[in-house]
Amino acid sequence: MALSPELEAQILRYHHVEKWRIGTIARQLRVHHGSVERVLRQAGVPRIGASRPSRLDPWLPFIRQTLEKFPSLTASRLYAMVRERGYRGGPDHFRHLIALHRPRPAAEAYLRLVTLPGEQAQVDWGHFGHLQIGRARRPLMAFVMVLSWSRRIYLRFFLDARMENFLRGHVGAFEAWGGLPRVLLYDNLKSAVLERVGDAIRFHPTLLAFSGHYRYEPRPVAVARGNEKGRVERAIRYVRDNFFAARTYTDLADLNRQAEAWCLGQADDRLCPQDRAQTVRQAFAQEQPRLLTLPDNPWPQEERVEAEVGKTPYIRFDLNDYSVPHTLVRKTVTVLADPERVRVLDGQAVVASHPRSYDRGQQIEDPAHIADLVERKAQAHAQRGMSWLVQAVPASRALLEQAAERGENLGAITAALGRQVARYGAAEVETAVQAALARGVPHPNAVRLALETQREARDQPPPVATCLPAHVVARDTTVHPHRLDTYDQLSQTPGGQDEA
Predict the structure, then answer these.
(1) Which CATH code fits 1-45?
(2) CATH number of 120-290
(3) Which of 53, 123, 376, 475 would suit a FRET pair with 19, their CA atoms being 20 to 30 Å apart?
(4) Model confidence pTM above 0.70
């Protein structure tokens, strides 16, 4: 247990002034004798008296050599090794002795890293919980970039830490600062380093292309060297404690607006750690002319993926479905997405554009896409009816062509002629259609009038249309009774005699 400074002072006074022994001090102050020994040893007091011989002494050279070669070897494994070599002591006492002889790594001292203005910036992600958007629970990630000399902070929040948002954060920082440093220092992020074996590093190819476009050097920090990126880690802690704590916001856009105002206000007004005689705002004014100039063409910030259109006119992107024209079903299209909109391209042509949704399982539709599909389905239904009518009544093709030239509703004409075929028969309707065409009136009423004239000429009444339900029509079906003499066979015995 940790002793208070007052108790440690009493231990030293009783030992040096009163000449008390370790056991006496431990009993009177009611502390463990090991704690008293530790306090005296830390104060430079040499070990009193000769240590008693231990059963482990013959194996100490072997143990020290083994620990020098394998410093992290466990005490249980060492115990098994010395047991095989003849040691017969208990495991608990052995573990206590090993703790005294195990080599301790020397404390490492770090140099304070000093950078030149415009030379370096440090980049990292910070996790700030989650946002619930409809049915989707998305992580709230903070992209933080800080200039190592002036300590100017750029902060922007995203709903994931994917490469597209990683590069959007870079572009936003470069544009906010009006330039960029010569070196960007990264932690071993997956967005920056794909693989690392010793000093061999394989950067993410997209990040390499991005750094080549802006002409800066991406540089990862060494493994287990937190001091090399301490500026961005302290910046994230500063964001967490001084900006995000107890912060209220309506949505992600509102949070980013507040973050921008905070970076240009409170964060810029703090004292610069590099030179506490000036603020971060004043230091950045000196550093900004030293930054690299931005290229004329900024890096494209849209996410680009390929998507398959299934049987329905929708593509799936980021947990949601977006509508496309029905002519693209069973095709592959290109999706370009930024934080606000989702665009769908067929080749080079933009065929759909939707506001981006961060919910889950939503259908984002363009009413024109659905209306076109509904109209196409209606036209297809009318085409099937026309095809049947032309096969049953060949003269109806000419009637429909002339009606189309006059701007008539072909669907209504097709349905009316279909009802007349069901009522009068195809042969009579064929004759009536020819009569209507001869009169130059391509209309169902002319066909109906011709049908009635034909019936009157044959002195036949018009047919009566029946629209009775199927179960009512079935009641008028003729039922043939079963012969009853077949039941007499059931009353006869196998021998042909009737039962008494």
Answers:
(1) 1.10.10
(2) 3.30.420.10
(3) 53
(4) no
